[in-house]
Amino acid sequence: MIPNINFIYIDPGTGSMLFTILIGVLSAAAYFLRNSFMKLRFLIGGGKQEKVDKDTVPFAIFTDSKRYWNVFKSICDEFEKRGQSVSYLTASPDDPALKEDYKFVKAEFIGEGNRAFARMNMLKADVVLSTTPGVDVYQWKRSRNARWYAHVLHAPNDVTIYRMFGIDYYDAIMVSGDYQAKQVRQLEEIRHLPEKELPMIGLPHMDALRERLLAEGEAPGHEMTVLLAPSWGPSSILNRFGAKMIDALLDTGYHVIIRPHPQSFVSEKDMIDNLTSRYPDSDRLEWDRSNDNFETLRRSDILISDFSGVVFDFALVFDRPIIYADTSFDKGPYDAWWINDDMWTFSILPKIGRQLTQENFENIGELIGECLSAPELAEGRRLAREETWANIGKSAELAVDYLIGTRDRLLAEKDEPVKEND
After folding, report:
1. What DSSP designation does 146 have?
2. H/E stretch holding 150
3. Percent of the chain with pLDDT strictly greater than 70
């Protein structure tokens, strides 16, 4: 008789919770053993304690994905220029940082997923910088041996577009616009949180993109080009319109570049395979699968997208119009649900582009022509830069100024206890 073993099944949600508990127990045990060892050394040494823990790094940068290297590269370059030691900890084995020839910035692959978070949960650092939300909410916990956590934004949009509680347990949020600072303060008031520091630094990845464009200049003469760069998921343009959208774009007579979201090649492989088979590369259409989107953006005259962060890169750096998908957005899972104010992202989109709907996409050629010739969209892009892109060209320098200044202050406050998990 075969025994019934159904009782050992654990659903994924419960498994994740149990793993999180296990990581917490192991982290606490490691912290207890380390403290016990340090106390023993203190007693054996006749009451003399080392002033500096040699294992503590002055600055640590954590990224859960290689796609955020565009956010951190200029900051790492600035640290390197100043001769400051930094540990760059990545959860991507092929992160471009791992190939950089730095002397002071040490890049290290620390494993993927929960393995990376387990490492971060026991990190010893004075100051930690990341663009990953959710510290102290899910698997990633504040280390008892890290004093300060700073968050840098990776897109010029609302802070409240993160999942709920995504930024609550950072000590500082590096913002790029006044509306972001206002949103942080509103969340703090609603949730009775202590005020975070909100240094206004700007947008490192957009500064780097702008610097590259200034160095390389505008693209050489080319035929009128439309870039379709959607996000992924059931509400994305390719899922909603698919072949009908591609047919409509080809009917305009313009050159068409389609750049799917990288996740589409993984999560929506069948859909992408069907479309690339039906519409192969030709002199009229090309599929862009490159890691670096700079050249594609540079030689495109208009962008069609659906809330991907590339919308603001294209409009504000390359100063060109966009067409965006309709703005139906469920605030439910996001911090935006807690705030009654309209989201900045959805209030600025009509000022920098035109909306794509079921009703007008059949006339996409006319919509493209309208966008290319509308002077008010150029004014909208100027307004958007003013509201969301502070300190253009200076963000990396200001970010490093803040991080070094914060560490100096922490070291001066010798008697202040290390902030631990609640």
Report:
1. E
2. strand 146-152
3. 84
In tens, the pLDDT along 352-367 reads 999 988 788 888 999 9
Please enumerate, as own/partner, the contacts of 265-271 that have beta carbons within 8 Å and a separation of 24 or more. 265/289, 267/232, 268/232, 268/238, 268/239, 271/238, 271/239, 271/242
Q: Note the maximum CA span of the chain.
A: 84
Euclidean distance between CA atoms 292 and 155, whole angstroms: 17
Segments of the chain scoring below 50 in pLDDT: 1-17, 19-20, 24, 27-28, 30-31, 35, 38-39, 42, 45-52, 421-422
Kindly report the backbone phi and psi dihedral angles of residue 281, in degrees, each rounded to the nearest multiple of 5, phi listed first: -60, 140
Q: What is the pLDDT of residue 267?
A: 87
**Two tokens at 327?**
């703005």
Q: In terms of CATH architecture, what is 209-388?
A: 3-Layer(aba) Sandwich (3.40)
Q: Which fold has domain 52-203+393-412?
A: Rossmann fold (3.40.50)
Beta bridge partners of 173: 151
Contact status, residue 172 vs residue 197, Cβ threshold 8 Å = yes
What's the one-letter identity of residue 309? G
Q: Where are the domains of the chain?
A: 52-203+393-412, 209-388
Paired residues of 149 in beta bridges: 128
Write down the pLDDT at residue 332. Answer: 85
